[in-house]
Amino acid sequence: MPGAWISRLSIGQKLVLSFSLILILLAGSLSAILFYLSRVNSYVDRHQRITVPGVVTASHILRNIGHMQTHVHHLLAHRAEGEALPILHALTDLERQTLEALETYRQSHAARTHPILFGMLTDHGRVDLAEAEDRAMATIAEGLAALSAQRERMSAKSPPGSDSESAEPAYEQTTERVESAVVTLVDVHRKIDMEMKLEGDRLVSQARLIALGLVCLLGLLIVSVFLLMRRHVADPLRRLASTADRVAHHDLDAQFESWPSRDEVGTLAGSLTAMLTSLRDHSTALMRKTKELEAFTYSIAHDLKGPLREIEGFSSLLEKQFSESGDATVTHHIQVIRRSALRLTHMIDALLKYSRLEQQDLPMQQFNLADMVRTLVQDRTGGLQDTKPDVHLDLQFDDLYGEPVSIRQAIANLFDNAVKFSARQARPDIRIVGRRTATERILSIRDNGIGFDQTHGDKIFGLFERLHGPNEYEGTGVGLAIVKLVMDKHSGRVWADSTPGQGSTFSLAFPDRSS
After folding, report:
1. CB 409 within 8 A of CB 490
2. What are the pLDDT digits (tens) for 319-340?
3. Are 383 and 352 found together in one domain?
4. pLDDT at residue 39 tops 70
5. For residue 145, is it within any domain?
6. Model confidence band, residue 162 (pLDDT cutoffs 50, 70, 90)
7. Other CB atoms within 10 A of residue 413 CB
8. Which residues of 465-495 are buried (b: 16+ CB within 10 A; e: fewer)?
9. What is the pLDDT of residue 308?
10. Non-local CB neighbours of 154 within 8 Å, separated by 6+ positions
11. Which of 78, 124, 258, 406 would give a disulfide with 83, using CB separation of 3.0 to 4.6 Å?
């Protein structure tokens, strides 16, 4: 299967392979661009080393030919030996300089002496320019030889005016031929320079095309790497994360897909599958144990409550019977038995309530907290026989997201505690305050009761944890544990702030899920 070997690579090896390909392509792109730039620079350099000096050399030859023609005219006009000799020396020097310039041109500036330049002309189909250059140099050489021969003949001693009329026109004809050849040489050189510029433009165009192609190839490679990493890394991780999220929300029917790759993603998928299998086994065992414990709890509670009801009933009958005999000690003992039986019955009821709440899945919804609190306060204070507390409500929000019944139970437990522990104050005062933060909605219930030592702030939320004996304040030790359980099921927080003798404040913080 094409590309199957990729699945056998680890994520690190895939990344190394991808970045290696990108670096190789970048290096190739840079090398190709540098190669074409060097070619372009070489033609620019040849223009500076060949074309410009070649034109200068040809111009030097043309200038020397003009000087030679002027000297010959003076020579023929002044044939006296004293005047002719300096002119002849000047002509000889000019001929020598012109021949040296022609030889310099032939060796340094001619197209055939530069293989790359001649190859470029061959590629362009312009070998005729090199041939025209060769012919022009040959014509110049022949013309210079003819001018030298004519100069030697004119330097021979002969009667004045014997051949001056025919020598000067012949010399002028030769110089015109040489000048025409030099002009042809310059024109050929200009055309060769145009071919060099065309070659340079062609190289630049090729460099641009290659650079564009390499950029496109690099982009294609980057897209391929992106698609490869998304297919072999990102998408599998996303699917694994989605399945893990379902498992985190107690959907144990979710299934991690098997991944054929042997990389880290495949290893992770295998580990998660094994974890899910183990979690299912533990969950099944836990559900079985929970059902057994629930059945056991109800059975024990039912078995305990039966005898307790009998104890309470018979103690009530005994209390009526001995109340007539007037034996105070026996009556007191019977009352203790009856109160203990009732307290144990209440503790069993509270424990059953806690157990049912712990096993329930609470359906969440948006409800009106303000109405709930007002109704709860009226219900709880309406039947009080002692001094009723002053209750103040200050809620900065009305709605709350949660399970209304359990939240009402938690608030009722806190409110009952506030009433109970502030009842001995001259003027019991309870304040229920609601406030919002950026992430939470906090409901606080503050009283002016007896308070407690802050070091017990965490202990009081434990099951059957009490700070006071049953003879001081009634209670089962389960109410605050139920509050803590309710807040845990709502992913919230509960805490208490208190100072002995100055009252307590219990706060419930619910995640703000109004959006």
Report:
1. no
2. 676 666 666 676 766 667 766 6
3. no
4. no
5. yes
6. very low
7. 21
8. ebeeeeeeeebbbbbbbbbbbbbebbebebe
9. 65
10. 72, 75, 76, 167, 171
11. 78
Split at pLDDT 50, 70, 90, the class of 2 is very low
CATH number for position 406: 3.30.565.10
Residue 442 banded pLDDT, cuts 50, 70, 90: very high
Residues 348 and 381 in one domain: no
User: For position 1, what pLDDT does the model report?
Assistant: 44
Residues 199 and 116 in one domain: yes
Residues 6+ apart with CB under 8 A from 504: 418, 421, 446, 447, 449, 451, 452, 496, 497, 498
Do 343 and 369 share a domain, yes or no? no
Cα four-point dihedral sign 120, 123, 125, 127: positive
Record the tokens describing residue 467, joined without a space. 């700070």
Of 55, 133, 146, 147, the closest CA to residue 101 belongs to 55
From CA 115, how far away is CA 121, in angstroms rounded?
A: 10
CA distance 444 to 506: 6
Number of domains in the chain: 3
Long-range pairs of 232-238 with CB within 8 A, sequence gap ≥ 24: 232/6, 232/7, 232/11, 232/14, 232/261, 232/263, 232/265, 233/11, 233/14, 233/265, 236/261, 236/265, 236/269, 237/265, 237/268
Q: pTM here?
A: 0.45
Domain around 367? 363-511
Distance CA 452, CA 92 (A): 130
- Whether residues 496 and 426 fall in one domain: yes
Count the alpha carbons within 13 Å of 293 in the hemisphere toward its beta carbon: 11
Query: Is 4 a member of any domain?
Result: no
Please give the single-letter amino acid code of residue 216.
C
449 lies in the same domain as 367 = yes
pLDDT at position 508: 92
Chain position carrying tokens 């359990």: 406
Structure tokens at 274: 């094994």
- 134: three-class secondary structure by DSSP: helix
Let me know whether 369 and 474 are in one domain.
yes
pLDDT tens track for 390-433? 889 988 888 998 888 888 888 988 888 888 888 888 888 999 99
pLDDT confidence band for 159 (50 / 70 / 90): very low
Q: How many residues does the chain have?
A: 515
